[in-house]
Amino acid sequence: MSSDQRIAKLNKLFHSILSGGRVVSVNQKDLFLEAICAQPDPVDCIHKLQDSPVGLPSLQAAMRFDLDTTFLNGRAAALIKFLQHPQMDEIDGGKLLEKILLSIVEPPLFWSAFCRAFRSGILEDDGQESFAWLLLQLVSLPGGSAEPYTPLAEDQQVMNQILTSNIPNVRMIGSKIKHVLDVTTVAVPKGEFSPGGRHDNDFVDFREVSILPTADEIISNEPPFLRPSESMEDPATFENRVTIYLDNQFRLLREDMLGEMREELHIALGRKKGYHRGLVIEKLKVLKIHCGPEGRRRKWGIAFQMSADLPQLKKIKPHNRKAFFADHRRIFMHQSLTSLLVDNEIVAFPTIDRDEELLARNPPIIILQFEGETSTRKSLTKLKLAQNIKLIQIDTAMFAFEPILRAIQRTRVLPLSQELLFWSDGTIPSEVDSPPSLVSAVLRNPQQELRTLLGTTTSVRLDKSQAMSLVAGLTQKVSLIQGPPGTGKSFIGALLAKALHDTTSKTILVVCYTNHALDQFLEDLLKIGIPASSMVRLGGKSTPLTEPLSLFNQPSNYRLQRSDWTTIDALKALSEQYRNKLEAGFSRYISSKITPDQLLNHLESKDPAYFEAFRVPNNADDMTRRLGCWDFKQETHIQQATDIWSMSPAQRRERVDIWKRDLFEEQINDLCSTAKQYNTTQMELSRKFSQRDTAKLQQKRIIGCTTTAAAKYCEDIQAASPSVLLVEEAGEILESHIITALGRDKDQLILIGDHKQLRPKINSYKLSVEKGEGYDLNRSLFERLVLKGYPHETLSQQHRMRPEISALIRELTYPDLTDAADTQDRPNLCGVTDNIVLIDHQHPEDDMPRISDRNDLSTSSKQNTHEAEMVLKIVRYLAQQGYGTDKLVILTPYLGQLRNLAESLKKDNDPILNDLDSSDLVKAGLLPAATAQVTKNPIRIATIGEYRVDAPLESEIVIVSLTRSNSNHDIGFMFSPERLNVLLSRARNALIMIGNTETFSKSRKGGEIWNKLFGLLKKAGHVYDGLPVACGRHQDRKALLREPNDFDSECPDGGCKEPCGTKLNCGLHDCPSKCHQIYDHSKMPCEFLMQSKCDQGHNKTWKCNKSPPLTCLKCEGEARLREKKAKEAIQLQQQREVEELAHAARLAEVEQKIQAEKQNLCDAQIAEERRQAIQQKEANLQDTTSITASASSRTANATSAVDASASSLFSLPPEGSRGSPWFPPVLGSPDAPRQSTATPLNPWNSGPPFHFGNFNGSEPLEILNHKQGDQHLPATEPAEAVAIQVLDQQRNRLNFGSADTAENIFSQSDSINVVSEPQEFDPNHDRDAHAASNLDRGEDVVKCMKDMLDERWERGKKTSIPRSHQGMVQMPGPRSQSLLPETSITTTTRTDVAPPTLSKAPSLPATINAGRDPGVSDQLRLQSAIQAAKNQATRKREEAARLQQAVEEAAKRELVTSPGKLIGIWGAIKRGLNL
């Protein structure tokens, strides 16, 4: 079988096992291991093993089946060698490799056999190397995972075998194992003072210490265990120096964090005076577990509800609350530290998980996340029985500490430890592979043109010191380059990065302390020619130039594979399981209560003495106990427990609380275990998703970040395997920040900085070099190595300061510093007689108790009002000399003076505050956070402590306020020579200082160096009692400005007191100013006031540089006044009209109500008359029985004729119908009640009955045509369309089909409350296009009604009624107006005629007065009725015309767009016209 065929067969076996669902069998184990080793891509193979449910179990089983020597030297060794692929350690930060190795060695069947084989010496070369490599990986496991394997590595026999092996790789691995043991072995110092036992968070092994403190730790009065820095040089620590070094770096940095926390907490609790920056929240309520919303899960926390709203939200509207928190991120800042107090006892220090949506609720809800199992357990125990929960926000920047501390705890390997910890004087620094051509060329001729060699876009020529620094950076493992002020050390750093990028394949990690310094260095790399595609920037706050370098803006072709998503889905499912379990457990924890029986059961085993004291005797029956008759005090066991029964109530409650907490511990243990599993799963998910970022980093050659970001993203950076660490401004960075940035695989470290300028910034003065207690936390790695004597290069030529200024720092600090040619012949400072000025004064300083300066001896900051006022005047004077604010910088040592200067200067100029100073002012409560975020432009101002070289604060002119002035000669931290060096080295052309020389020169600490400075200044004549000024125009005019008022009196306009006298460009007037620096007055406008009079005699004035005004301002004012009065009169008139209209509307409304009440009264009267009419009819019915047959027959015939005639004339609908008598009904109903006579009274009902059922869309037209044909009524097509539309809209009503409803659909459109618009049936209906046609259609409807009225009137005139029957017909009429005049009604017979109304006319049947013979009175009455009907028809025609006109006007005014709306208007107008 060929090799290709065998590989194909092995691949098939490999995939069949992983996809088969069954663990590999003993017969397949050799082939399975061979198949693994035959995979071309080890990384992909490992992923497949992990993703398959049987992958790791099969590997585990295959390594156990056969443990003989042949297997160990063969398949096992080959597999372990396969796992040594370099990329294995980069997958998921090495987590996947750890999982693979643990599956091989646990259970330890294979590992035990492998160890025995190594001890016995039967392993071959590959077997020995595999064993040593596997042991190295096991002892390097994080956390406590390495503990089971450490004893084997500490076995002297095993280590001797490895270190003395004749195989070079085995010996190299042995050295690494020894190094790991040196790093991880706990070194316990001899003597009483040692770590561990002070409180619940004090351990011998610093890796076990929780980063966040516990409550016991904070309240502990015992000093923490800290080693002095000199212990690193003690020969007794040689064996464990790496471990001691990491231990001390961790403890010192953590103590610096805790010191600030203790101070904050003591101030918040009132134990110490000061300003507390955070919030204090009382009476919190525990709600539930919070794990974030679905799809965006995060670490678990507990949700607490506040008892009241936040004061900051009192005036915020509900819909703006969330936006408020988005704009004010310092309120409950994310991941900020808090102190949780339960019943006034500190229980934990959780961090805030900022959820703006929950904070925006009323009352707000805050999420707290707990760190450390000890604090979590204590918090849950206390919260269960809490009466008052209090939260104190602590403004400690945890983000600056936590990543570094955690990275130190994870450190298992310290690269370059021989150079950093074990270098001794006389040892030659170790070298690295370097570009030989470049190095040799620079050594041959240091000052040659390097543009071609380095590939830069501009000329590069170095001086000797720069050339030697470049060579050292390229050749040494650890190189130190010292750069005094202005010597261009950042330029050398950029050249080194360029050379390494172009001539090697190394990846470079560039770190700086601040984001600003990082951006500045990356911009230098771009300028020198390194392409942006080779660089990436981690972190935020980038500049426009470095924003494209951000990690989030980098393109990537990386895609998660199917196996990755399988793993992610499995982790998400597991996370949800833990979350559900966590929430359920927390709910049980919240709702559970302790019963007395549970307490007794607990006491029986945990506290027998109390159990015995509470025991009820067996002979005391239940009834006796219930009745209270049992005298328990006489019992022997009670008398023996007098100490228990004599406890006070408070002691008893405390004891019961302890028992309850003990019972809750079991629930709490389960909660903590589940919470830990949940958080672990979330971390694994985060690492999985971060693989995309890792892939981006692996594609870059230069990775830039701050030291904090280097610790935060250490796993991602480690995956990119940078081998060079380049540190900019290394003298200002803490040593712990640099060692965490080293990671595991760095083989070259380049430190660029200056230890003679500012030291690293810390919070605790006790730990500083200046305090002198030996902890030296703020001594950088750069300074430590230089002081130790490690070889370093120093740049010697400065390009910043004029020679007079550089002479000061040359005498004080840098004796070898030289001046470059471009520093010569600088221009002198205009308006001042000297380029270096020290103004000496005796004005005392002021205390500011509210502010404290870190690194100072005092507890309060300082300010000096006199100096602040002088600085303001100096700035103003220099501006008068033509110096813009971009040429000025103001420095001061103290935050108090910084704030004083800022307040004074912002009246004329907004100060640019250094970002660190702004942060301190915000924390001190002196600067609003919003103000700190706004970018200002003019004057730059900073404290000397924050005036770091990374900030672009070198300036043409530097003004320094020394601030301190007191009789005690106390200068605080200004005794530091490093601060004085920074103060003197910032100015390019001019330096102005103001201070009390006596205070500084007589200081007990630091007075010597200040005396030396003052001596230099006095010798050169630079010390003055004020600012020495000179007039630029009058050379003999000079002044010494000692007080702020002197500036206004001696040089108010920047020159002298002489008037200017120069003619302005108008040629008429002289310059009104005092002597000033403007020589060319041609562009200076003349401000002289000119005068004249207008036509009305008013005075007019204008400035000379302006043209005379065309109009008189006074005349214009009078015209505007008249116009204003006219407008006011019009407004008053309009207001009166509005009021009159409102009054008329109100009157109409009241009148309408009056008419309604009258109508109600009328209706009641009609009802009563109807009742009486029915009674009369019943009486009349009885009378008719006595009439003769002939009379009855004649009467019946007459009644039929009269009824037919009346129906034709008045279109009377059946009784009970709601149809209007003047509008003909369109529909009839077969269900309408009929008369008792044989002949129908209404001829409309003579046709076939029409039934209303479920008809289709075309049947309404048939109904309309039928009724029109039956009634002989003409109608236009638009009118028919409207009628059909109304009918179709009403067809679905429940009562559709009854006679009343059907008639009223067309006869009473005003009764239809809602008329559907055409848009409901046709969404594309064009309202505007159909408005005009719809108006015409409405007019057609009105015209149709009018035509029908005319036709019925004509038909009524032609109707003839037999005179013999006229008296027997009684006609119905409208309610509000009788058809018969009152004088014509003479009969005493009751009638059913109701008082008529125009609004509604109920239909009443004709009544035959069968009880009386016809006579003259009956004939007159019939004639009167006919005349009244004619009159009524005439009125109806008039009313129809009025209606038509009203509809047309309303339609035009309302822009009617549909027939439905027109009908609605018609109905509304009918009601308004009382029709």
Assembly context of the chains: single chain
Main β-sheet description? 7 strands, parallel
Give the strand line-up of the largest sheet.
11-12-10-13-14-9-15
* Amount of helix: 40-55%
Shape: extended
Radius of gyration based on Cα positions? 52 Å
DSSP strand tally:
32
Q: Report the uncertain regions.
A: 622-629, 912-917, 919-926, 947-951, 1198-1255, 1293-1332, 1357-1416
- Give me the secondary-structure category: alpha/beta
The average pLDDT score comes to: 78
In terms of DSSP E residues, the strand content is 5-15%
Total of helices: 53
- Please give the alpha-carbon distance between the first and last residues: 112 Å
Would you write up a description of this structure?
With about 1500 residues, this protein is α/β, with parallel strands linked by helices. The strands form 9 sheets. A 7-stranded parallel beta sheet has the order 11-12-10-13-14-9-15, sandwiched between helices. A 7-stranded parallel beta sheet has the order 22-23-21-24-25-18-26. Helix 8 (about 125-140) runs parallel beside helix 11 and helix 16 crosses helix 30 (about 650-690). The radius of gyration is 52 Å and the shape is extended. The N and C termini lie far apart (about 110 Å).
